[in-house]
Every structure is written in structure tokens, then in C-alpha cells.
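ASSEMBLY PREDICTION REQUEST
Request ID: AP-0331
Submitted by: J.K., bench scientist
Number of chains: two
Total residues: 560
Priority: normal
Notes: Please return the full assembly, not individual chains.
Input sequences:
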Amino acid sequence: MAVLLLAEMAENGLNRDATAKAVTAVKALGDVTVLVAGTGAQAAATEAAAIDGVGKVLVAEGDAYAHRLAEPMAALVVALAPGFSHIAAPGTTDARNVLPRAAALLDVMVIPEVSRVVDADTFERSVYTSAAVQTVKSADATKVLTVRIASFDAAGEGGSAPVESAASADAPALSSWVSDEVAASDRPELTSAKRIVSGGRAVGSKDNFAIIEKLADKLGAAVGASRAAVDSGYAPNDWQVGQTGKVVAPELYIAAGISGAIQHLAGMKDSKVIVAINKDEEAPIFQIADYGLVGDIFTILPELTEKL
Amino acid sequence: MKVLVPVKRVIDYNVKARVKADGSGVDLSNVKMSMNPFDEIAVEEAIRLKEKGAATEIVVVSVGVKQAAETIRTALAMGADRGILVVAADDVHQDIEPLAVAKILKAVIAEEQPQLVIAGKQAIDNDMNATGQMLAALLGWGQATQAGKIEIEGNAAKVTREVDGGLQTVSVTLPAIVTADLRLNEPRYASLPNIMKAKKKELTEKTAADYGVDTTSRLTVVSTREPEGRKAGIKVGSVDELVSKLKAAGVI
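STATUS: Completed
Returned structure:
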């Protein structure tokens, strides 16, 4: 039994948090070989090799992998697939783009967003906007899965895996990269943040989001938003927490002016401690919050920011 | 340019799914079913391309139970031209996996020869987010998933994708598969005259066997359960009380 784990790459190197959480998820399945692909992959490979539980690191350098386009990435994964019982990746937008393509090329199903590994063939995953959890058993020769990052703790340091080069795979140029628009921020990333402060429709405007951001900065937290806030243009798309946005599970989640639609709850209900601040005491968010405070966010948030 | 849009009949967006008492799945008997919301966005985008003159014909395909004909009619009422229903299941509880759906769609595409496929990025029942990517793989076509913007530029589609941390714009050579994300557009409602007109539009019925595709599931659902519930905690009366509770909980 052996696992090929596709490392998550960011613009500036390895996304260690996502990759190390996926290592935790899959290490019981067999020896873990991490595949690092991209330009400047060598440094990322060294970092991946130090993750506890990693047995080997394969590096695929090359411009073809620079922007993690699905076609060359899937071709690379498929070329390396022989010999592995499982092919996995953290459930990021990159992996969700690449792995289903790789799975189809291998004529196997993909098992997306696994929240628990039961055994080599059996996995748990959420369905119906997290209204249900299914246990599925795969009959495929190779199991291809993505891991729900929020369900696992990151593996620690202490590994010293050997790093080897992987041969690049031929892939027709079907698509090309045009541009990236990455929001620059000094705040922690949503999916790996220990604390998150999120704002909803009640925030009322893009300018008013400053009260959410001030509290977040005081706490060293990431900033999130409900779909309603994003759709209203108060917050950028990549701040969206929920089934169609990001699924998070921080130690502290503060929901301010968020009513608590099922869609939003699906993205944050695994947080350790949830605080809800809303002026509507009947808001569904209070049904899952550990601490609820009924009142106006425009008076409560500045007071909370000051008193922390 | 012909555009093909696959659509899925799923539990309505506003209905909360209930797990059956015996743990065998989610109860879909007597539950309101609708078009998957992401597929509605895909249909809308195809119609807008046609209105702009970039698309000439829109063919809608659904793979599933007979009742999915209603879902196709909805798309036709919105403005799609023609429908193909591929019956692959008798029971509404039987979900056809993305790999099998992709194989059927590949066969449909061999006959229809569209230049562009716009699919929803994900179905809200099985939450797989896989059919578009799998179809692209089987056809050997390029793909652009999670589209927030699509522009046709000659022999390519320029697509802005919603990715972790921001946006990525790619150019994908046609024919290609694009999957629609939430913010691509806001789908229109079908008007009553258009709903009446849609009843006269062509809807061809086929079966999975017509395309020689084996729809046996690769993944067996062993059990389905409700997620661990989360109990409501307490209401605090003031910011000071909240701060002391959070300190006691060790999270600040």
C-alpha cells in the first residue's frame, strides 16, 4: 500500500498547512510519497520532506506546472500513478480541478472531500450541503481522493524524506495561463487560521466591513464573509465561508451579523468555539453558537475590539 | 457555435435533506426537486452567449430518471433550444456517478459535436464537483472549472476562475469544458409564454444502454447518517461577559 500525495503549491512555495493536514489524513493508508510540481519546486520539496510521516518526495520542475493547470498536472499524476494504491491531495480548488481529471484518465471514480479515512477502501464524506455524512466503499483498483482540510490537524516537523526528481509527462497544450489576481494580505489564510471573524449582510456596506477587519486584526484572525455579504459586494469572493466557499474549522469563529443559512453553517460548524453576534435573537446562527450575544454589531464589535 | 449544457435534477435548493431512519440514504420521496442551481447558471450563460451572437444552438442533456424531463423543460423554457434525456435509473434514490455521466455525455458529444460544454461546477446532492473535469479528460479537451466570467475569443474561451486566494484567468482552446461557479451570472426566470413554447421544443429520449455505457457505481454507499449535531450554547448579556467566557475557554 502506497500513497501518492499531490502537494498544494502557493505562489511563494509550498502550502505547508494544507499539505501537512492531508499527510495526517492519509498516512495510515501506506507509505506517503509527496509530489511537488511547479517552478521553484525544489525549495518546496525540501520543506515537504521535513513533514512528519512523509516517506519520499518527488519533484517535477517545469514551466508546464507553474500555474497548476489541470491538463499537464493530471497527465503528470497519471504518469506517476503505477505502483500507488491511493492518490490524494488536500481539497483545495487546485486539487478539485486536477484530481477528477486524473481519476477519469485512470478510469476510476474520485472520492472528494474525505473527512475520515475508515480503511483502505472506505471513506466518509459530507453530502447534501453537509446535511448528511456518507460512508462510501470504493471498488476501484486505485483510490483517488481529496481530503477535507478542516477535518484534520497538520502533521508536525521531524521528517527527513529523500527528494528525487520525477520525469515530466507529455501533455498537449489545451489551455494557457493568462493572469492571477491574488488578494495581498498580511492576515492569516482562511483555511488555516486559528481564529476567524466573519461578517454578514447586516454589515451593510464594503466600508462598514472595517469593523470586522479591526476586530480580526486585534485577534490576529482571518476575515470571512457570508454568501449574502459577498453577493452584496461587501466582501471579495475568496472571503466566502460556506458550502460553495471555504470550509473552515478554526479554534474561534466569530459570526457578526450573519443569520446562519444552512449553506454558511456547512462551512463553519466544525469550529471549536463559535460566537454569534446578531440583533435578531431568533437568528438560526444562535442554535449552533457556544456564546450568543444579541445586539447591534455596530456597538458590540468596537467595544469587543477595545476590550480584548 | 453549438453549446451543450448538462443539467441534473436534484433536491430543491431550499429543502433541507433528511436522512432516512434506516441510514440507507437521504429521503427523496415526495420531496420538491429542481434543477441543480449551478446548472441553472450554466444554462443562463449559454443563453447569454446566444443572445450575444457567440452561440447558435443550445442543447441541454440530462442523465438520470425519467422525471428529469421536467428539468430539461425548465432549461428549454429559459431559452435552450433542444433537449436530450438519457434515462439511466428507475428510482430517484439512485444517483449516477460523475464517471458514468461523463461517459454518457462523451457519447452524446460524439453525435452532437458542440464546440463548448458549460456545466455546473458541482451538484448540490452528491457535492462531487467532478463531472466536468472527468468529461474533459475522457474527450481529451481542455477545461476551465469554477468560472466567474467567460469570454469567447476566436478559437478560445478566456475564463476567469474563482480559486483559493483570488482569481485565475486561463485561456482554453475550443472545444472545451467550462464549469460554472455561483457568481457567473444570475439566472432568469422563465416567462409563462416561454414555458408554453418550451412544451413544443424537441426532447429526445434515450437510455444509457443506447450509448453502451455501464452505469454500475464504483462507490457503494455503506451508510448515511446525520452529522454530529451541535447544541446551542448560552446567551451572554454583555461584551464583558463574552470576553471572560472566551478567556475561560482558552481561545483568546
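REVIEWER COMMENTS: Chain B has one domain: 2-248.
SIGN-OFF: pending second reviewer
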